[in-house]
Amino acid sequence: MEEPAGLDGRGRRMWRESLAIWALTPAHLVLLEEACRIADRLEVLDSMLRSVSRNVKPDIEQFPYISGLLAESRQQSTALKALLAEIRQGQYGASPAVVDSAGGAGVSDLTARIARKQAEG
Question: Could you give the CA distance from residue 3 to residue 12 in angstroms, rounded to a whole number?
């Protein structure tokens, strides 16, 4: 599958590695694309925070700027976490790399395991 236009390094890597382990519905591919963009945004925010932290002066004038960057970074991290949780729920045909030790990779796998157990005994 072709990588979405405009992704930077972190987003491209996330796209490639995610598709290598997950088989996703078209709707979840859209979520993955947005997750990759957020990953790139987080990289930019981190770079900005690192730059500011190297040049921090003990004056109150920088506080709103630093505080705003930290708040945005937290919001983007929360959004990324939610998207990844949704994507993980939407996978079908997960590779062994993401399958848990009980043999499943999501709610549908749990349902299938329950059905197998009921049929066995």
Answer: 7
55 to each of 1, 26, 59, 60, 67, how far by Cα in Å? 42, 44, 11, 13, 15
* C-alpha distances out from residue 27 to 31, 36, 70, 90, Å: 7, 15, 30, 9
Q: What is the mean pLDDT of each run of 10 residues along the chain (121 residues)?
A: 94 96 90 97 94 71 83 96 90 48 50 74 66
**What's the DSSP call for residue 2?**
P
The C-alpha angle with vertex 112 and arms to 91 and 27, in degrees rounded to 5, equals 20
Residue where the block lists tokens 């590695």: 17
- Residue 90 gets the label, from left (phi > 0), alpha (psi -120 to 50) or beta, of alpha
pTM of the full structure = 0.70
